[in-house]
Amino acid sequence: MPAVQVVIEYWMLLIPLVLHGLGILFIFDVLMNGRTSQGTIAWVMALFFFPYLAVFLYLIFGARRIQDYAAAHQSGTTDTHHLGKMLRQEQQLRDLMVRETPQIDVLSDIYQLPVMKGNRCTLLVNGTATFDSILAGIAEARHYILIQFFIVHADDLGRRLKSALIERARAGVRVYFLYDKVGSVRLPRSYTDELRAAGVHVGVFRVGRGWLNRFRINFRNHRKIVVVDGEKSWVGGHNVGDEYLGKSTRFSSWRDTHVKMAGPVTLAVQLSFVEDWHWACGQRPEVSWAPPPTFGSEPVLCIPTGPGDMVESCSLMMVQAINAATWRCWMLSPYFVPDVAVIKALQLAAMRGVDVRILIPAHPDKRVVWWAAHSYLAEVAVAGVRMYTYRNGFMHQKVFLIDDCLAGIGTANLDNRSLRINFEITMTFTDADFIRRVEKMCRDDFAVSDPLTTDDVYRRSLAFRLAIRTARLFSPIL
């Protein structure tokens, strides 16, 4: 028998054995860590009977938590964990902590970070206002800058940001630049090489620790954070790219929301960045934890969430916000692929007479996700939830408004990816004046939106209705 044929037959025998072995190994993993019985049964059946495909899918999509990140986050043995305790125990900061309304106090307990008063918050509507504010803040930095985005493009806006960071780094300001490996996969190496050459510390967030996790590109760090000198911070929906300035060739305009916060809550935003930097780079950035000055009187709560949490904190945050509503629950998100808990909370809120509105884009950037959103329409509409589609370009903001007492602005979408898989950050507000500004912004958005009814779906073609039902099958990973 020729040697080549022997080698081929050897590998033809070995590869199936390896895949079946990995399938059995992953079955044990899913049995020990599966989140729901339905999902566990599906994975077990697939891994046992179809390991040739299921093994590769499980490597990418199987996990719902990053075990070692979770262990480090919760164990109390890491430096960053001690920093979180310090924020709650340092006396000068304790004087800035408040217990507000039950709606936000419960949210504070979810992540064990305090509501902090003494802030001045600025609502930033759309990209020009957001990046004018961010770039002005960077130019004023005296000590350090922390900057983190999910997507960074090397286009005009990306080059403006790079130039601003290089200028500050050359002026002696410590600059830490963190981006997500998957979200910024198209960012050229020359971009980060220029930053490093100027003295900027560059970090890449990836979850590829160990041979198993290196394939799990399903996890994303979706946070968008800028911190200047531990005093001012920016959080919201914008990434770094010309499309976020309304220069997209695909959409006529781009609707998004960010918020600038000056004051003590910036330390909680900073802590979120430090944890991510520590995970990505194995080091703590050199930052100040001294209580910053108070710039105003507004109380704000920072809620970072992600697959490193012991509970599904983002889903809990959304459910608590919806359950807290007594007469209004407005939720604006580019993607609406909720989990069962969020759906039930929306249904119950509408049934008890709450004005529940969901605003999604009329024009999708991700068609499969958009199709999946339509599959939930009948399920929520029957309970009285009203859905609308934003028709003036593409809407990418992540905002919720509960009664006149709570508003949320951040990076978390109303989809399974944000609720369970992504690292996210949401800022929540109770100040009456700020909530009125958010309400006006939302009313302006609803004014350029159209109601979406079940008839709108039933009148569509059979192909469309089949597409939305098929897309829903992929909802756990959308």
From TrEMBL:
Annotated keywords: Cell membrane, Lipid biosynthesis, Lipid metabolism, Membrane, Phospholipid biosynthesis, Phospholipid metabolism, Repeat, Transferase, Transmembrane, Transmembrane helix
Membrane topology (UniProt): Multi-pass membrane protein
Keyword Lipid biosynthesis: yes
EC numbers: 2.7.8.-
Cellular compartments annotated: Cell membrane
Membrane-spanning segments: 7-28, 40-61
InterPro entries tied to this protein: Cardiolipin_synthase, CLS_N, PLD-like_dom, PLipase_D/transphosphatidylase
GO CC aspect terms: plasma membrane
EC top class, as a word: transferase
GO biological process, one term: cardiolipin biosynthetic process
Matches recorded under SMART domains: PLDc
Keyword Manganese: no
Gene3D superfamilies the UniProt entry points to: Endonuclease Chain A
GO terms assigned for molecular function: cardiolipin synthase activity
PROSITE patterns: PLD
Domain PLD phosphodiesterase as annotated: residue spans: 217-244, 391-418
Record-linked PANTHER family: CARDIOLIPIN SYNTHASE, PHOSPHOLIPASE D
Entry protein name: Cardiolipin synthase
Organism this protein belongs to: Desulfosarcina alkanivorans
Gene label: cls
